[in-house]
Amino acid sequence: MHLDKAKKRIAKQIKKGFHGYPLVSLEYFGKAPDSATEVVVSFTQEEGVEPQKQTFVSGGDAREDETIQSTFVKIIERADAKTVTEIDGISTL
Q1: Residue 81 — pLDDT band, cuts 50, 70, 90?
Q2: Which pLDDT score, from 0 to 100, does residue 93 have?
Q3: I need a surface site. Which of 33, 48, 51, 63 has the fewest CB within 10 A?
Q4: What would the pLDDT profile of 41-65 be if each residue is shown by its tens digit?
Q5: Helical spans, DSSP H, in 1-93
Q6: Rounded to an integer, what distance in angstroms lies between the CA atom of residue 38 and that of residue 22?
Q7: How far apart are the first and last CA of the chain?
Q8: d(Cα 31, Cα 6) in Å, to the nearest integer?
Q9: What is the pLDDT confidence band of residue 1, given thresholds at 50, 70 and 90?
Q10: Where does residue 21 fall: left (phi above 0), alpha (psi -120 to 50 degrees), or beta otherwise?
Q11: Structural domains of the chain in order of their starting residue, each with its CATH number
């Protein structure tokens, strides 16, 4: 999947807002506020359950990594996520 297409699909899901569970959340991390080298994807099956987390690491900016962004689309689809959220900005490591 092309990077732009993957990013648009993720953004569309985020814009929908909260529609219940399962929930997928994306949080970007980096050493500088302009480049994300890590992403943590959290999956929550239902309210009150501890989320499952997976970390992805990129040599460059993970937001511009086609493989990582395409993987997020597949995770969202396979989880049949009703809600997708993204923490704004980049948290520093």
Answers
A1: very high
A2: 81
A3: 48
A4: 999 999 999 999 999 999 999 999 9
A5: 3-15, 66-79
A6: 23
A7: 29
A8: 25
A9: confident
A10: beta
A11: 3-92 (3.30.720)
